Structures are given as C-alpha cells and as structure tokens.
Amino acid sequence: MELPEVQDFEASKLGTKSYWDTVYDRENENFQEIGDIGEVWFGEESVERMVEWITENVTDLESSIVDLGCGNGHLLLELANEGYKSLAGIDYSESAVVLAKSVAKERELEWIQYDAVDFLSNPQWFKHTFQVVLDKGTYDAISLHPDQIEAKKQGKPGPRENCNWTMEELIESFKQYFKYHSHVKYPVFQFGGQTGSKICTVAFQPI
C-alpha cells in the first residue's frame, strides 16, 4: 500500500495520531531499507541550537531529561553525544518509538529509554519526575488538533490556523504554570517593517 506524502495532509491533521502513525510507518520502512532516520522536524539548526542551550544551562550530565513527542529520537541522540546519561523520550505514536529504538540500537545507544505513552492509556507515567522537559514541536501539533473545531464554532477556543507562536504568546499561554527563563536565539529577518525569526523556542521554569 502506498503511504500518503506529508504534504497531502491538511495542516490540522498535524494534530492527529493517525497522521504521525502514517509518517513514522513510512520512515520505519525507509530506515530498514536505506538507513535513513527520517525527517528532522524544524530542521537540523533547531536541534543544534536546543542542544547548545542545554549544554550551557544544564551542566550536570546526570540530569534526567525527557523529550515529549520524541519522534525518531534525534534530539536525544545529539544530547547523548554531548555526554548526557539520563535520557528518555515518549511519543503517542508507537511507530515513532519503534523507529527511535531502532536508530538508538544502530548507534549503540540502547540505554536511552523510549516509551509509547499517552495520558489516557497510562496516566501513571506522567507522575515521573524529570529535571528537564523538552518539546520540539509537540505543542505546535496540539495547537492544530482538529477535534477542537466544534468548540471553535461555538465561540470557544479552537484550533489555530497555524502554529507560528511568538515568544510573547508562549509566555502568556504558560504563565499560570511557569515563568520565563530564557529563549533560544535564532537568526532574525525583517519583513514588512517587522523583525522576527522562523522558529521560537522558549525555556520556562516552575513558578
């Protein structure tokens, strides 16, 4: 069966488990056939800059770190290369976790813990304590979840038409739970008299 290309989906489908299962089913096939670990979402630069931020701000290599929505595990692999020793990744797509484990095994990093978990199936998992929690795109996908369309029709908060969050919007969204710590710096560009960057990554700490 031919699997659909990523671009065949509507933007809101990025928020569905079925979309990501399809993506990672295909990428598992590619990995087995040609050794390609698959797409690095938001690009290599976003990974490099997140890793750089972590190495500057999390100096204890024994710090427990979890990546929410880990996908193929690329971000954790890069942290392992930097010497971090307590790494875990979770994803609600079992296909993603299969890929992440396969890639880690090939690189002799099988000690990285990967789990296919979601809150409904295993709420106990979320009682684990980590010192650093990473998210490279998961909140963006949640923001596009199509199940909220009916709520939007009723005048309630619904899915965003895109996931281009600004730093100010993220700080506002999470201020009830966290306070701003710092942000990852990306190259900036100017358009229409406004200055910005293509990616926004913000670090928070508990209130």
Mean pLDDT metric = 84
Strand content: 15-25%
- The CATH class of the largest domain is identified as Alpha Beta
Oligomer: single chain
Largest sheet: 4 strands, parallel
Radius of gyration, Cα only, in angstroms?
18 Å
- The spatial strand order of the largest sheet comes to 3-2-1-4
**SS element count, helices:** 7
**N-to-C series of helices and strands:** HHEHEHEEHHHEEEE
CATH architecture of the largest domain: 3-Layer(aba) Sandwich
Q: Superfamily at the CATH H level of the largest domain?
A: Vaccinia Virus protein VP39
Q: How many E strands? A: 8
The amount of helix comes to: 25-40%
CATH topology of the largest domain: Rossmann fold
Q: Give the structural class.
A: alpha/beta
Shape: globular
In angstroms, what separates the terminal alpha carbons? 50 Å
Domain tally: 2
Low-confidence spans: pLDDT under 50, at least 5 residues?
1-11
